[in-house]
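#dry-run=false #mode=assembly
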Amino acid sequence: MIVVAFMPILILLAVIIALSLLIKKSSRFGFGRGKAGLWMLISYSVLLVVSAVIFLAIPLGSIELKGQEKEEKEEQKSQQFYEAVQEGKLDEIEEWRIHEWSFPFDKEQLILQVLENDVNGINIFVERTDDLTETVEAFYYQTPLMINGYEVEEKYMPAVSMVMTTLSIYPGEKLNLKYKMFGSEFPFRLFDKENGSMWGDTTVSHWNGTALYIRVPEGLDVVGDQNAYTEVNPS
Amino acid sequence: MSLIEVQTSEIVKKQIGYKWRAYTGVFTSLVVIQLLGLLFSLNGSGSMGSGRTVYDVNITYYTADIVVGFTIFWGFLTAFLLTTKAYREDDFAFVTNRKTSTLSTIVFLFMICVIGALTALLSGFALKLIAYFILPGEEMLLTQGVGNVSAWLLGMFATIIIVFMFSSLGYLAGMIVQLNKMLVIVMPVVVVGLMILLSRGGFQIQVYFFEFFFEENNAWLFTLKTLSATTIFYALSVLVSNRLEVKQ
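#status=ok
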């Protein structure tokens, strides 16, 4: 472990010593002397130019990041999303609906089995309505996850199931997203006012908003941890 | 006294030609350090992992930032080593004085800094090409382009003057060390010690240094700051070199 901790320093020292030996005139190392150094540079430069030409010529199957303009819009939408959910305006959040469940239910008491919100990862809302009889409905909404303007296509889905009188909501399969990003070098980012300072880098700057909206018949007794869900009363 | 009058520009030109042919070791070291930088960059120059309960996002960045950083360091070290006695005495094979010798070294340094900066930026393509072909199929590729040609040219110019500025710093450090060899130990101790002392007093000089140069969004101001610093460092080097003994 100690060796690993000192590795960067050791590598840096090795680089400094190697460079000093290569440049130092009195060094006995013949490597890079005479025309060899010049030829090395020429060959290296040719290699770089060729790779630049190939890189620019091949059609890369990549996604160009669109930057912050799109994110700001998404940020606003996300704000509207939560406002609409809390007011029970489902027609306004229709575009973000991912999945819906419908369970026949004729009992008087519904047990809501959910984990705490911070563990579950989704926000649960419950609405009592006259529109439903002997049915429990659940809708899952999700606003996009954005990476500098790029909308992640993979959607998360919670595991919702009804067993007897218990509606269970558990976290679904965790989504592991792996990306490789080709960025520009820091001198190019120096004068890029839109993206801020040169140290700024791409991040998931806008997390998705989620909501599991459960509609139950009016008068149904819902039993569950009060901290795990929010009651909605659309006016 | 010679009857033939020699022009300073002619001598400087000849000395640059000589240095170009003689100091090819600097090119070898440039290629070696950039290849090393490329090797380090293959692991990604940075990665970002953020996780929430439902998503676990991991982004690995590929940029030639490490190569550019290594090139800046190479510029510093090369300039530092060019001030050593073995290099400076070479100039006396020609008709020279301290002024022409320093001038030709500065021009030579500028030339190699241009080469270093250009190859460093070009190495970004090589890096991305390698990274692209070794990308596993399921991983997605995101790109963040430089933008237009003028942005590219501006970035290229910025890289050149950054490398040149650090070479001037290296040249100054080298010249100071030539005054007394003990300074090679004393100088870093004083600089680092001062930095620690000042940071204890709430004045982090290294942070101000980087903010002053690298958080400047205005291209004109950035150029002015960088070139002014370069001029000051070289002017100080000339002043220090005048304190050296004759043919030292």
